UniProtKB/TrEMBL annotation:
Chain residue ranges for the region called Disordered: 278-300
Family the UniProt entry places it in: Belongs to the TMEM8 family.
Places the protein is found: Cell membrane
UniProt entry tagged with the keyword rRNA processing: no
EGF-like domain span: 458-497
Name the record gives this protein: TMM8A factor
Signal sequence residues: none
Keywords, ordered alphabetically: Cell membrane, Disulfide bond, EGF-like domain, Membrane, Transmembrane, Transmembrane helix
Transmembrane portions of the chain: 510-534, 595-614, 620-639, 655-676, 682-701
GO cellular component: plasma membrane
Amino acid sequence: SLYVSEYFSQSAQKLSFYSWYGNAKLFHFRVPEDTVLLRWLLQASRGKGPECTNMEITVHFRYGAPPVINPLGTRFPANATVRPSYNISITLSSAVQNTTFVNVTTPAAGDWFIAAHLPEAAGRIEVKGFSTPCPYMFQADMFVLRLTDMPVLEPGVAMPQTIVSPAKPLHVKVFVPKHAAGMRFELRSCVTSKQKACTVRVVLGSITLPQSFQRIVTCTGNENCSLALDSPPWEKWLQITVESLSAANTSVPVEMLASFTACRPGSTSSFLNFSSLNQSQTGPRPGSTGAAGSSALSTGEVSRNASDQRSFCLQNQPVVREDLDVVSVRYRLLNSPSVPVNSLSPTLLLLNLNTGMDSGGSLVVSLLLNKTSVSLANATVVACVSAASPVLSLNATENCSTAFFQGYPLSLSTSSVEAMLIVLYPQTDDWFLSLQLICPKGQGECKAAEAKVTVFAYLTPCFNDCGPYGQCSLLRRHGYLYAGCSCKAGWGGWSCTDDTKAQSVSAQNLATLLLTLSNLMFLPAIAVAVYRYYLVEASVYTYTMFFSTFYHACDQPGIAVMCIMDYDTLQYCDFLGSVVSIWVTILCMSRVKKILKYVLFVLGTLLIAMSLQLDRRGVWNMMGPCLFALIIMIAAWVYHGVKRRHCYPSSWKRWVFYLLPGITLAFIAISVYAFMETNENYYYTHSIWHVLVACSVAFLLPPRDKHKKPWAWPQKLTCRYQICQNDREELYAVT
């Protein structure tokens, strides 16, 4: 045999602490056909800085679709099927790098996925630039060993082969045709080269993770050995491995035979239904008799199918796949939404999910039983959803399993007329829905009975669009798209249905009120600025108060939300107003000349607007203008002090009662903003930030100029004519 090794690699990704599925880094590989050995090379590394500590990386594997993981232990939505993923842990302790190998023998050909993530996120809100997070990198490479000339076992034809040694197992493959109800594999004439009874192990099927359904049988002696499979995967190559358990250096000749049991499918004339679908879309042509002819032929076809129904092992129902959007598909039955279900043979619906881009969503199958259609009150409609091949023996075994797949069972009765199934990240394959009527006293009881079941099946990116407390996000890894839910207001789970840590409505209202009404503390600062004739500064504070209030009203995760304009616009205006408020306050404290002050106001605002557009959350967008303004203020104060030959500001009362309290409040506000905010306490820590910043501005604003008189609203509003008269009298007296 000729083996060929191949190597596949993807670029390394920076890992994140886990809070939702978007934090897991996904790797997508495709294993070629006839692969006998798969080896994953997993490389994890970390930075060398003091902020890097020991870390445990969790790596999940799955065949056919991204792994369904639950590191936080949250609840999944009702009716969702969850099977634990296969995962390993990689520990980064004293070593900066860790290399791990994972071997898979006879892996299934097709899509394989790896997801890696760090432990649960701490929930602390870190200001970008204040701290340097430790980089944890992860890279996955794939080595495959592929057999180029794997022998093909033809159905019904015995094939002699020889196992050269126990170290070199024999690999053959057989193609499973469509509508194969069963397969039988036989091993004959097994003797060793020394004419002794042989012992061999036969493995049918390939390994799939997280669950593997390989069928293994050990054959001992000269007698024929056989293995039967029910519902093998349709239209796929089935790999068979035969390995010798005899002594070393002993060749074992064997003879293999594979045979299939065919299933004769019945149909409800899908061609005619397709013609009727085409007519319903384009409309009947005037004077055409095609519709009447189709109707008559359809009636004859149905009667013929009814007469031959006993000879069919299943009844096909034509289904149209309708692509709506990315990872969004709707399945529509051609005849009607209701399908007939009887006890003689299962009714089969094909749900095509083999495009390679359908595994990143959720498959939803909803069944509704028409009570009036069931003549027997104690009859039950049993359904099964399976991949690769349908379940054809619902009346005998109700375990909903095929040769290499454990299906998902559903049940309907007159007491429970609805059933729903949610398959999270369905693997890439042809999926089948089988339905059959079951009677408790045997199938003879409900021979003539028939039930009508309405079927709704669709593929959606996120089930129920993540609900009212979640946001469905479309994620991308290279060309592969998949979806995940990002939950809010303490809700969790795959579809944001876990309310274990959810905020109550009153808590959400309280958070909204705190974050919005705390901005009203800018009113004293605005009043002080207006009273001291700092009208430009007062307008900036008003702008900041307005947009901060409505930004936080729109930024709430729960139901207490109000957005007066686009969220991104509100956020930008809030950030811009906050930084410009600090800028104009410090420049106002410097007491530079008015013309220079206003030039700096405008120039600084333009530069701040530009920097916020480049990086809105960068710490230097706030610290840069602050430091530059502080340099200007210190230089101006030094200039005034040298010119007057004493400390500036000269009044100790100004320092004790205004400057020191304002500076203290500003430092406390910065500490709360940078080091104390978390996702859980954000609504009150950020409200404290609003209050402290607004109060510090009121304390730090300098007194008005000495030549400025205080506002005298009553005198200026009521005595305007008297003032003019006095001016004229004085002018007359002088002349």
